[in-house]
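Let's sit down with a protein and look at its sequence and fold side by side. Once you have written the record down, we can walk along the chain together.
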Amino acid sequence: MSANSFGSLDKLQVGDRSYDIYRLDAVEGSARLPYSLKVLLENLLRTEDGANVTADHIRALAQWDAKAKPSKEIQFTPARVIMQDFTGVPCVVDLATMREAVRDLGGDPTRINPLAPAEMVIDHSVIVDYFGSPDAFERNVQREYERNKERYQFLRWGQTAFDEFKVVPPGTGIVHQVNIEHLARVVFDRGGVAYPDTCVGTDSHTTMENGIGVLGWGVGGIEAEAAMLGQPISMLIPRVVGFKLTGELPAGTTATDLVLTITEMLREHGVVGKFVEFYGEGVHALPLANRATIGNMSPEFGSTCAIFPIDDETLKYLRLTGRGEEQIALVEAYAKAQGLWLDPSVEPEFSEYMELDLATVVPSLAGPKRPQDRISLAEAKQTWRRDVQNYVESIQGAADEASSESFPASDSPAISGDSAGDKPRPHGSNGSGRPHDVVPVTLEDGTSFELDHGHVAVAAITSCTNTSNPYVMIAAALLAKNAVDRGLTRKPWVKTSLAPGSQVVTDYLERAGLTPYLDKIGFNLVGYGCTTCIGNTGPLQPEISKAVNDNDLAVTAVLSGNRNFEGRISPDVKMNYLASPPLVIAYALAGTMDIDILNDPIAEGDDGPVRLADIWPAPEEVAAIVESSIGQEMFTESYADVFKGDDRWRGLDIPTGDLFEWDTASTYVRKAPYFDGMGAEPEPVADIHGARVLAKLGDSVTTDHISPAGSIKAGTPAAQYLEDNGVAVKDFNSYGSRRGNHEVMIRGTFANIRLRNQLLDGVEGGYTRDFTQGDAPQAFIYDAAQNYAAQGTPLVVIAGKEYGSGSSRDWAAKGTALLGVRAVIAQSYERIHRSNLIGLGVLPLQFKDGESAESLGLTGTETFDITGVTALNEGGVPEEVTVKADGKEFKAVVRIDTPGEADYYRNGGILQYVLRNLLRK
């Protein structure tokens, strides 16, 4: 490595080894920066090339104005990439396709390999079909392999074909927990150079690694592919919120209670697009597991990251999880040499400041549909009653006289806080002051009970958020033991499940002798994966599902996950609550949200009523078992052959060789079309003539509106494609599972049922006007795009403000490009989607300030000509282009913002750029 313009290259001696490092103190102003910006500064120092990363970029970061609005763009080059299987499959499809393109152009296909380490953990595919039995785990994994055989064969091939690409097989753990327990380096040693471990991932909760001082966040698949191939990620130098922690958590509270409190505070404050960094004496009081829980929830705050600096607790965790002593020594020496070691007495400069006394945290839930809606456990019953009243009224129309006649009001008072005691009460009342609609249910095994609003239909210890934390997991298991000792078990209508984030969890529960108690109350192991947290809850028992849907019952789910959005957990469950693992078990025992769980008996035991306080474990007991039951050998043994997999994984029949043997009949994995007809040199950039508008959209169109997601509905173009290929409706699966097949995905692009295309009046969904037909009738967007393609007509999209906001879904850009869209003209863009459009060869244009489609009189029925784009062939980027739309003419700003982006666009996309560069070398 050579020194950069700041002369910062230096040596770091650690034991008998010497490392090259880029000294931060060589740059004036670096000492005052927050930890997270110091990591970014080192990244720029190490990657300075005079083009994408310049001395001016480095100075801009070192001289960061904490109070200024972000405006300076920099290029961040992450050290590695991590993926999960849903979002990672398209990345591997693209790499496999690139190999064929290199071969077709006369090059060596084996040169297509990730340049940065890339690791994938298969965790998104296991579904809780079976629960409450000793063989639930084995049966769920077997079903997972049956459903996903094609995808797994493809990934298994990728694991053998690509260098620097490794796959953690199914049944191992959740990506974020495997990351912090094993994959994360904290400080890299590569080629004799030591530098901070930075990592982006194709899942928003990649931020869990922030808990051990690793800077990273979730990105879209296009950015992940680019990072794998050595390309930087464009970003604005962010504002950094300093969050000071003081005091200690009181007895009886958990990391879950803390993180729900922080989520509520930061959502209210507003941290979207900002870094959050924790500091202060209270940080020392937080075990690493609690820090990881907080980092994991960063997307729920809305922040880009939520990071903790390195300290002794970090080293203790690295040692516990089996990292080598040489690596631990490097982490300590590097952090202290670079000013990255936490010093509670020093307060860095931040853009904004917040503070929390940990002693004020109280037991909490969050729900019924947003993580930031924290509820004190003491108020949970009252809050549920208010929320369920609103739900029941919304579906029954309580103010409607017909509802009053069908469901006469009783003499009981209205719900607490509702003075209208004489208003109609949907579903009657049970005298308790809340909606009541008891429905008798008899299960197949003869068990009978009555189901009502608020009954807990799902209780799931799930997600890496909390199952990574041994304190809450041991607490849950001890509570289960105490419940069994009192003669308690789950209510028969509750679907219970235990899906830890890694095998270490079940190892220490087994060593502590607590597994039998979890099994006895129905919390049997169902899988190592995300399960209920991402909606892979599996079906409720048929009799329960029928009772819920036939009677519009507002049953609930209680889970230890990070998201509880409406409809996410189960299609049968209307109200979802986030809780700590011990509270998940408590509510499974109670069976209802309509309970003051702190004071009311939660169930009848062998010797009478049992209250939560009777079975809640003492913190000293939890800590003692954590200390005695978890050892370094558990991690070293669990991760010794983490990429090897079990007999099922190793036994998959896979093709051999450097090129993948595509199955033309596959509806899951298809060769990507991005390199079809590509030459060794790019064609000159051309102006756009005779374009038609595929969609005219308003403000705040998100990537969720654009990108295919969710189930594939019958009658849609994607469904028609699957049916034409012999797939039965019951086997459609989801768009997520079919992300490796572009034929399915482009048919679902712009197909969101809430999309409003202004080319049509009052119509929602994936429709447009097809101007290839005589009277421009309404048509599916996909069908119209195919008709335009047959005529050689390019397409444009017109949009308002904040186009492409929300999650950085790669298929929002991929689908746009594959539909034939050559340019988007919007009032403003979300940063990542704008970048992704360029990465797919789509030109992002922006209306000039004060102008919009409306002010210019654009209806979307015009034919568009865009000229001046050819100036890109001269090496620069034009500030503006001219747009003519029938008789209207205006200037549009070219939103290609960096030299690297210009190179991507000239090549037709980022993958084409990388491929051609490899061929030239």
Observations:
- The mean pLDDT is 91.
- The longest strand covers residues 688-696.
